[in-house]
């Protein structure tokens, strides 16, 4: 997608004021989301005013993301962040762990009816533990060892060279489904483990996942990422065809994931090269194509500003919702490509997406970011007035200031 811009005289990534702005916005987000801490353990989703709704309980995904986010903040020198990360680690080590069958549940065993074991969830427990370990948070090293063992024995398939999706209660039955979303966050985790634990074999796993999901399946589809597969990795393009708005398993392609995958692929390329290994040429080619596909299919493709949530296999919008995380990932990817290439095209999009976030998602009156909007940029009535997620927005204030390698937690520690 052409942007018809001239080359700016100075990149925002090189501007001291922009770095100050990113720091300030990150601190504002951290302050808002500390209100999600539960005295009973863990963290709960917040409403739009930054309050915990009545009856809310600890959420494992959110708690894992809080361990990660406040672990990063602790390494940046934010007072109080280490205690919040430790609060998350304690909950992940106890309250949210399945003492009966091992592994982790979506919420505490006493309150959750869903006792399946989900790969996606375990990846965020591990990511939170890995970042907290890098930050020296008590209890995090033991937690990381435990969750990595579960991931390696239950979710990593050596024969498939990818992660499997979920098990029924008690690890009894493996679902006849393979998912792109959990494998994408698996790549994110592999990058973290390779550096935090100094275990380079995780980079081989990340490369195998990217080769399958992107090079083998997305590239022939004009870089629209297929995220749903049967258990034998046969494509399942009509999965959830009636649910284009689903939070984790929507029908069709998700432009926000095009940006997220593309950024992770640049991190993988840099991680391989940092260890003296040659990255395959297709890795950057496919990453760049994914970025353009995200713009082509996502940006204002329904005639309204911003990124649509999902599109069908012809690139037509399926869900017109505007979600904060898709825009956070778009600007993070633009900053990564700008570092990698210096191309003014990415400078344009980096600025353009931040400007859109500034006027659309940042809530200066109540704090935090608006998270789920409809195509009119009003609060999405189907989701309600909620602000559960710190992770995507906070990372968007960090990634533009960091190198592509080493992994995020290690890079932050070296700031």
Automatic annotation (TrEMBL):
Cited Gene3D superfamilies: 1.50.10.10
Domain of life: Bacteria
Name of this chain's protein: AGE family epimerase/isomerase
Record carries keyword Protein biosynthesis: no
InterPro entries: 6-hairpin_glycosidase_sf, 6hp_glycosidase-like_sf, AGE/CE
Family: Belongs to the N-acylglucosamine 2-epimerase family.
The keyword Isomerase is assigned to this record: yes
Xref: SUPFAM superfamilies: Six-hairpin glycosidases (SSF48208)
Lineage: Bacteria, Pseudomonadati, Pseudomonadota, Gammaproteobacteria, Oceanospirillales
Signal peptide boundaries: none
Record keywords, A-Z: Isomerase
């Amino acid at each position: 997608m052409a942007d018809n811009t001239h080359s700016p005289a100075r990149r925002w990534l090189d501007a001291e004021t922009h770095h100050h702005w990113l720091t300030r916005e990150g601190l504002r987000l951290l302050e808002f989301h500390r209100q999600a801490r539960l005295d009973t353990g863990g963290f709960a989703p917040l409403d739009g005013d930054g309050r915990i709704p009545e009856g809310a309980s600890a959420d494992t995904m959110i708690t894992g993301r809080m361990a990660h986010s406040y672990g990063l903040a602790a390494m940046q020198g934010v007072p109080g962040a280490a205690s919040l990360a430790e609060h998350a680690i304690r909950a992940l080590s106890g309250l949210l762990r399945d003492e009966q069958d091992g592994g982790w549940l979506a919420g505490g065993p006493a309150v959750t009816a869903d006792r399946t074991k989900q790969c996606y969830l375990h990846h965020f427990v591990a990511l939170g533990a890995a970042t907290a370990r890098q930050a020296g948070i008590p209890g995090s090293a033991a937690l990381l060892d435990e969750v990595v063992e579960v991931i390696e024995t239950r979710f990593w398939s050596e024969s498939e060279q990818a992660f499997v999706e979920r098990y029924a209660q008690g690890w009894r039955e493996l679902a006849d489904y393979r998912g792109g979303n959990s494998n994408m966050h698996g790549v994110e985790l592999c990058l973290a483990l390779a550096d935090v634990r100094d275990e380079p074999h995780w980079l081989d796993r990340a490369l195998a996942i990217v080769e399958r999901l992107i090079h083998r399946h997305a590239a022939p589809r004009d870089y629209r990422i297929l995220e749903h597969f049967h258990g034998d990795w046969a494509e399942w393009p009509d999965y959830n065809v009636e649910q284009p708005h689903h939070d984790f398993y929507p029908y069709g392609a998700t432009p926000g994931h095009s940006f997220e995958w593309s950024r992770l692929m640049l991190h993988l390329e840099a991680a391989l090269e940092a260890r003296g290994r040659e990255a395959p040429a297709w890795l950057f080619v496919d990453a760049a194509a994914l970025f353009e596909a995200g713009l082509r299919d996502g940006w204002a493709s329904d005639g309204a500003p911003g990124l649509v949530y999902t599109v069908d296999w012809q690139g037509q919008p399926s869900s017109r919702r505007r979600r904060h995380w898709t825009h956070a990932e778009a600007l993070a990817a633009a900053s990564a490509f700008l570092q990698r290439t210096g191309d003014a095209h990415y400078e344009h999009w980096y600025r353009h997406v931040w400007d859109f976030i500034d006027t659309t998602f940042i809530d200066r009156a109540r704090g935090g970011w608006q998270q789920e909007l409809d195509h009119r940029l009003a609060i999405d009535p189907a989701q309600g007035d909620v602000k559960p997620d710190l992770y995507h927005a906070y990372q968007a204030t960090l990634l533009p200031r960091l190198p592509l390698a080493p992994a995020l937690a290690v890079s932050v520690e070296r700031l």
